[in-house]
Specification:
Elements: H1 2-8, E1 16-20, E2 27-31, E3 38-39, E4 46-49, E5 56-57, E6 60-65
Antiparallel strand pairs: 1-2, 1-6, 3-4, 4-5
Amino acid sequence: MKLKIEKMIPQPRSRFLLVRCPECGNEQKIFGSATTTVRCIICNRVLAEPTRGKAQIVSKIIQVLE
């Protein structure tokens, strides 16, 4: 029964990501499908840029959060 329920409930296509800024080393959580430019809160460097689907991640991905 549990298998049928899992098939009926769609899983999200995007996740939250923990990224590290290459300039200052700050770790920040961002959304994988960001629709706006994401900047570091410390040094204001661009971490991710929006595309039509998933965001283009410019920084290093440390962990995919569930």
